[in-house]
TrEMBL record:
SMART domains: Ami_2, PGRP
One GO process term, biological-process aspect: peptidoglycan catabolic process
Organism phylogeny: Bacteria, Bacillati, Bacillota, Bacilli, Bacillales
Domain Peptidoglycan recognition protein family: 18-138
Domain of life: Bacteria
Protein name: Autolysin
InterPro entries in alphabetical order: Amidase/PGRP_sf, Amidase_domain, PGRP_domain_met/bac
Boundaries of every N-acetylmuramoyl-L-alanine amidase domain copy: 24-150
SUPFAM superfamilies noted in UniProt: N-acetylmuramoyl-L-alanine amidase-like
Pfam families per UniProt: Amidase_2
Entry GO MF terms: N-acetylmuramoyl-L-alanine amidase activity; zinc ion binding
């Protein structure tokens, strides 16, 4: 499935490429109704740096934000839209997180960041079928105390900012925009079995119902269910007549 935001200039796909220790749960993009705006509270940084902190220090499975916007306007894409990542507490399941690098208590976002935020926000409103509203981190329940995102994001997303045009980054080839490996499970009860495999082969887990249409990875590992309708260069079926046999086949594969 192709999204409007993938066609933006300075777009970089980092899904599955930063530090992780396990994977977040994945739902359909249809559960996402809100967009959450954050600032990093740091003068510098990127998705890789934030992943090191979120995973290595906080013990989270992956980096918190679906998107990170660097100071030069580069948009780093970290998660599929349906991923339940940790960034707004009890509102995580229905929110997509965008973080702009910077400490906006003492500085403003760059013009490039403002333009990228506007363009990304416009694209996400088209890509999220049940989009309702956009809020700052401190506007979500339980976060009124939080100084985030501080800057006037409402003014930025309301009107296209004027920024110095820069040369767009070259569009990656289709294969470069794809995961190397992914795991498909039939339903959430299969998650515990698939989690062991995910840790070994370093691949995200999708439920079949939340799997985007088309080819999402070069290699697919099917844990439970069938491989009917799936697309990949290589498909490994680790299935069985029940979950005990599925677990046994996964264990044999890992030997």
């Amino acid at each position: 499935m192709s999204f409007h935001f993938q066609k933006l200039p300075k777009f970089k796909n980092l899904r599955g490429k930063t530090k992780h220790n396990g994977w977040y749960k994945v739902y359909s993009p249809s559960v996402k109704t809100d967009i959450a705006i954050h600032h990093s509270l740091t003068k510098t940084g990127n998705s890789a740096a934030f992943a090191n902190y979120h995973v290595g220090t906080l013990g989270w499975p992956e980096v918190a934000y679906h998107f990170v916007i660097l100071k030069d306007g580069t948009i780093e894409w970290n998660h599929d839209l349906g991923v339940l990542s940790y960034h707004v507490g009890d509102s995580n399941k229905f929110s997509v997180g965008i973080c702009l690098v910077g400490d906006f208590r003492t500085e403003e976002p760059t013009d490039e960041q403002k333009l990228s935020l506007y363009l990304l926000h416009e694209a996400l409103k088209k890509d999220l079928p049940n989009y309702k509203c956009t809020r700052g981190h401190n506007e979500f329940p339980g976060y009124a105390w939080k100084q985030c995102p501080v800057f006037n994001y409402k003014a930025v997303i309301a009107k296209k900012p004027v920024a110095q045009a820069s040369k767009p980054a070259p569009k990656p080839k289709e294969d470069d925009d794809m995961l190397e490996k992914a795991i498909v499970i039939n339903a959430f009860p299969d998650f515990a079995i698939a989690e062991v495999l995910a840790a070994r082969i370093k691949a995200p887990i999708y439920t079949r119902s939340a799997l985007p249409a088309g080819k999402v990875a070069k290699e697919l590992y099917v844990v439970g269910g069938t491989k009917d309708g799936l697309q990949a260069d290589k498909i490994v079926a680790l299935t069985g007549k029940d979950r005990f046999e599925v677990a046994e086949n996964v264990a044999k594969f890992l030997k």
